[in-house]
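Aim 2 progress update. The chain analyzed this quarter is reproduced below.
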Amino acid sequence: MVDIKHKTISDIIFQLRKDRSLTYAELEELTGVSSATLHKIESRVTKHPELKTVKTLAHALPTHYEEIIRAYIEEEGGIEILFEILQDITSEKNVTLIPMVATRLLQSSQKKTEESLQRLVDFTETLDDGTLRALLYTVIIKYSRERGLPSFVGKGIFKKYLINRSNLSLLEETFREGEEALHYTDFLSQEEKCLYYYRMALHAYALKKYAKCIELGKWGHAVDVTHSKLKEQVALAICNSFWHQSNYKALEEHIQLYEKLNYQIIIDRLKMFHAMILARTNRYVESLPLLRECLDEVQGDQRLPRLNLLLEVLLQINDDVSIEKLISSDEEQLFPYENATPYQYSEIGKYYKFKGAFFIRQGQANQAIETYLQSVKYYGKIGAYQDIVELSHDIISSLSFGKNILNFGLLEEAKKVYNGIINKGEA
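Predicted structure tokens:
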């Protein structure tokens, strides 16, 4: 087929009739557009056909659909018609044409740039498909940046970040994109600013960027005059970040602060925080009774972080009997397999890592490798590549462990797991 890209609709009709040796009557039968209309378009008597005619042609000739619409919008300057086309192609999810039509719409001289941008933003927010919304916000951001309109740049980056952060396998990339909005927070509303700081803080925590989590979380608290579950969740992430940094003085100060502010999520975990501090300061004998109590206080997937800390301590003191009892329980009750958060996936990965370490100590290399691969799968869901690298070392150690007869089917399984993670990261 001859390349008809960048041609007019007249050129497209002429080339189509020539390639297929069609008469006007035959093309009318094929498209539903009258011979007289087709002749006028091809001969350029009608230089700008009606939109309904163009849509009829485009849908009747699906292999030429994009070329026909592209040719039409290159000559169309009417903002209402361009919005109608945009509505049509978004309903059909045509990701090739959407940026082109949106850009052409913004270039229309019929409205002020700010008015066109705002209307496009309002339209974008009506779409249910996150991929299409992100695509349109990319156009909005680029166009606004080129014309020095920081308010639309900031709101575009913020909105696009909220959409893309749900892609758990690209957490690092979306966090970097989200950081750009730090330069535009003055153009966000109070509510948007709080939401941005809070989501970024939790995002940073999932990536183990603990200093960033603390910084962003505190910025959010500083501008938030309300009291919400999200606000308390960020307070918990801040406390946990101090714990991961081994900054126990700051942790205790913030626990006291949040307790005074009546943050129930912190109050419910006072005993757990005490046990966590004891465990990380090598006071294992004191921490164990508290950790067991804390584990028994919760059910379902809330048990997993507490179980992991208990397993960590038990591995330190070589209490294999207790570990075996804990890992033989029903795992289905522990794991939020559906709609899990990055933090929850990280905890599942950690659990399997501890379980694999236990199997190694028991001399069960095959079980250890199989369990480590489970850990790799869950870390892979959130792109936790540093954890995956560490697990790779454990898997290699397991392969050469002792004189066990290895199940070499596990090698194929390992290949599939790692290839799946690599391919997902490249997508």
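The longest helix spans residues 342-361. Confidence is low (pLDDT under 50) at residues 1-5. These observations will guide the mutagenesis experiments scheduled for the next reporting period.
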